[in-house]
Amino acid sequence: MTDTAENAENASVPDEVVTDRATERRTARVTRRLRGFVARHGAGTEGQISYLGERGYRLVLVGEDGTLGDQVAPGRDILARAAERAGVTLRDSFDGELAARVRTGPYEWSRMAGLGIGGAAEGGGANGPTTAGSSAKAA
Questions:
Q1: pLDDT number for residue 132
Q2: Closest CA to 70 of 61, 83, 62, 79
Q3: Nearest Cα to 40, choosing from 88, 7, 112, 96?
Q4: Which of 3, 13, 34, 91 could disulfide-pair with 86, CB 3.0 to 4.6 Å?
C-alpha cells in the first residue's frame, strides 16, 4: 500500500482509532519481548513500572532465575497490558525482596563500575577510560 493510499484510508478513520491501532501494535511488540524474557528466565518473572520522564515508562524485570531485564515504552498502559499478557506479575515498588532476587553478572558489574572509568585493565567497562582528554590523539 502506498503512503497516499494509506493516508486516504486513515483520513476516514477517527484519530482515536488510528492511535489505538498504533498503541495495540506497540503493546503486541512489547508483549512478544516480555514473553521471550519469561520463556528464557522463568514463569515467576516479576516487574515494576516507573516513570522516566519525557521518554515514557520503564518496566524493570526480575526473572525467576534472578536475571535482570527491562523494557521501555511511551505509556504505562502499554507496559501494564503487555506484562499481563506475558504473565509477568507487577509490583507497586522495587522493594528489598524483589531486589534480593537479582543475580548480577559480569555485564552488570562492569556497567556499575563507574561507567568504564579506569578502563578494562582496571576492571572498568570495555570501552576504556572516559576521562577528559581520553579521546585526544597521541602526538
A1: 38
A2: 61
A3: 88
A4: 34
Q: Where are the alpha helices (DSSP H) in 12-136?
A: 15-41, 76-86, 96-101, 106-112
CA dist., res. 58 & res. 79, Å (int): 8
Q: Are strands 89-91 and 46-53 parallel, antiparallel or unpaired?
A: parallel
CB 27 within 8 A of CB 20: no
- For 1, 26, 52, 112, 124, the CA distances from 106, given in Å and listed in that order, are 47, 31, 26, 10, 11
pLDDT digits (tens, 9 = 90+) for 3-43: 444 444 445 555 555 678 999 999 999 999 999 999 999 99
Domain borders along the chain are: 3-94
Alpha-carbon span 114 to 96, nearest angstrom:
23
Q: Is the entire prediction scored with pTM above 0.70? A: no
